[in-house]
Amino acid sequence: MFFLAYNILSIFLFVPVFLFNIFRSIKLGWPLAAAERFGFVPRSTLAKIAGRPVIWLHAVSVGEALAARPLLKALRTRYPGHAIVVTNTTETGKTAASGFPEVDLCLYFPFDFLLSVRIMLRSVKPRIIIIMETEIWPNFSREAARNYIPLVLANGRISDRSFTRYLKFSWFFRPPLRCFSAICMQSEIGRERITAIGAYPDKVRVTGNLKNDIPSRQVSEEERRQLRNRYSIPDDCCVLTAGSTRDGEEQHIIAAYKELSATIGTLFLVLVPRHPERAGDVAALLEGAMVQYRKRSTLSNEHQLKPGEVLLVDTVGELMNLYALADIAFVGGSLAPLGGHNLLEPASVGIPSVFGPHMANFREIEALVLQYGAGIQIHHPDELTSACQTLITSSELRRILGQNGLKLLRDNSGATERHMDVITRYL
Prior knowledge:
Elements lengths: L1 H27 L5 H4 L5 H4 L7 E5 L3 H17 L4 E6 L2 H8 L6 E4 L5 H11 L1 E7 L5 H9 L4 E6 L3 H9 L1 H8 L4 E4 L2 H10 L6 E3 L14 H10 L7 E8 L4 H12 L5 E7 L5 H10 L4 E3 L14 E3 L6 H6 L3 E4 L12 H4 L5 E3 L7 H10 L2 E3 L6 H9 L2 H17 L3 H10 L3
Parallel strand pairs: 1-2, 1-4, 2-3, 4-5, 5-6, 6-7, 8-9, 8-12, 9-11, 10-11, 12-13, 13-14
């Protein structure tokens, strides 16, 4: 009865969804890709995976795609004869996943209309489908189960804020959740929450956080020098990379940078908005603050940037390099109540981080960073300047926090193998 009611409702949503897709694509400058989003993939595209068993992994956007990287590498190593297809919802996610050498084909995830899902499943013919984090779509889940395609939820998490909403609408999530063959949650709290929402308890396992398995290394001085040269950043600067920043945060970062630059003449800021399409808005903030900047897309080897200026990054897929060339990182989404972003990205290259109080989507990682002493948490935007100054003025403190971050990753790895133990049962 649930699925019947859902599909009757979807008939009335068809036109609004289609029009919203057109509006959003035009607004953000994304390809329309309407045919693909409705399940139609050209035969010429599918030729890339013809004749091989298919592993289908879905990662909504950039964050999920990056989190899936260790799992994709393990799948490629263990199943070299399989084709790996990655689907994404956003253009930025698709751009990031397209750069992974483990991936054979990147597509847009279909809208959850019954016909769209059926066409896509018949075209791709997956042996298994792996859904990153908590993407629960009724028709997609049910059609996978009806076609006896194992469906695995990987790296599952339910934030504090989301849990109340999921629980309130458990009548909606329970039927598709029970179509999953296995559910891999990051933590025991996650296991309890998804079971409360309606998942079968015997299908749920705690496998840890794949984000803990990102490759970690101490960046050498020579590599840092080469990276800075690539981005036209002077080698002798103290570089602050503000990564994954969101609306409501950049003005505080710019204000802190101006204040610090007045007394620290070697400071340089790399500013990386979470969504590159916001680069124009951030540029306006820099102009209003009378701070010189250069966009990454217009950068050339002929133009050497200077201390006190800003590199404004309007591209995707470069954040890890920009953390690796830095001395200090600020991790965005945390000054405004937006749930935070992954603190392990700077930690994985031995860079200490500063972050705000709003880490609801990364509570366990936040706790690990504080436990290991790999970063500094501030509780108000006014504290940003002093926290950055503390790290800027002490190379020894930066070294200690950076080494603590690398130790954190060494001590907490293993989620990939636990996921593979589950996935291998179905392959």
